[in-house]
Amino acid sequence: MSTREEDIPGYDAIIVGGGPAGLSAALILGRCRRRVLVCDSGQYRNHAAREMHGFLSRDGIAPCELRRIAREQLEPYGVEIREAAVTDVCRGAKRFEVTLEGGERLRCRKLLLATGLVDRLPELPGLPAMYGKSVHHCPYCDGWEARDQAIGVYGQGSTGVSLAVNMKTWSDDVVLFTDGPASLSRSDADRLARHRIGVREERIARLEGRGGMLERVVLEDGSAVERRSLFLKAKQEQRSDLAERLRCTVTEERGVETVAEHEETTREGVFVAGDASKEVLLAIVAAAEGAAAAFGINCALQEEEFA
């Protein structure tokens, strides 16, 4: 493989991430006649989900089917897609240099990070088989399917209380499991009581059910609480450290921060879209952010070209 600078392939934009945000951006940029590469590692936050919801015209579609349709619609515009993870990226004088797994280097004028988040789930026996079927982290994505059922909420402190209260939108039967002492403030305790939400502070021994469908939460004291679904607030981490390597501002609360219009980060020429920016974590919002970022990228390219 040649390492000469002039032999390194160049693109107008490289998009890191092949989910709704990255593919949406690729569509807009492809229609702007830009040379675009999408690098898709094959890792997706909704990997366990059987269906996507709240996506206009595609409600209930399987995530893999949405990606298939999106890729098919990119074909007329010459967008290149590679099934490869990006392992490193650096900023040169006028270009970004991207390194793929295997060592191949590529260059681009603008970079879009659509790398998403990872949910760190609690270590509860039985949970992995149920995640995406009857255990969920997003009520907007899966609350409708759990409507009027016996819903459990897993969480601690004010975060758990808020999620439990929010679930009352979908069911009157909500129980909060704190998996240990709740240590609730007076205001949180009053809030739960006002909304008639029960609290179980015993340690959870396991989740039981069949075919991925939750039937009961078994506690360490041997008792069990019948539930048909469980919602939890998982800790979220950036899937990729590329933003930090580029010295973009990244915080635990807000994710990769944007400072300009159209999703540009604190690092000029670097844009972010989707869950990595930790705004509203819905697939349709990620797709919208991808389109907005693509608009910003094309405008920036035009400014350089028409200066």
Describe this structure in a few short sentences.
With 307 residues, the chain is an alpha/beta fold. The protein has eight helices and 19 strands. It has helices at residues 20-31, 63-74, 127-130, 139-142, 157-166, 186-194, 242-245, 283-306; strands at 10-16, 36-39, 80-82, 86-91, 96-100, 105-113, 117-120, 135-136, 151-154, 174-177, 198-200, 204-210, 213-219, 224-226, 229-232, 235-238, 250-251, 255-256, 270-272.
Describe this structure in words.
The chain has eight helices and 19 strands. The mean pLDDT is 94. The chain has helices spanning 20-31, 63-74, 127-130, 139-142, 157-166, 186-194, 242-245, 283-306, and strands at residues 10-16, 36-39, 80-82, 86-91, 96-100, 105-113, 117-120, 135-136, 151-154, 174-177, 198-200, 204-210, 213-219, 224-226, 229-232, 235-238, 250-251, 255-256, 270-272. It is elongated, with a radius of gyration of 22 Å. With 307 residues, the chain is α/β, with parallel strands linked by helices. Strands 1, 2, 3, 4, 5, 6 and 19 form a seven-stranded mixed sheet that branches. Strands 8-15-9-10-11 form a five-stranded parallel sheet, with helices on one face. Strands 12-13-14 form a three-stranded antiparallel sheet, with no helix packed on it. Strand 12 and strand 13 (213-219) form a beta hairpin.
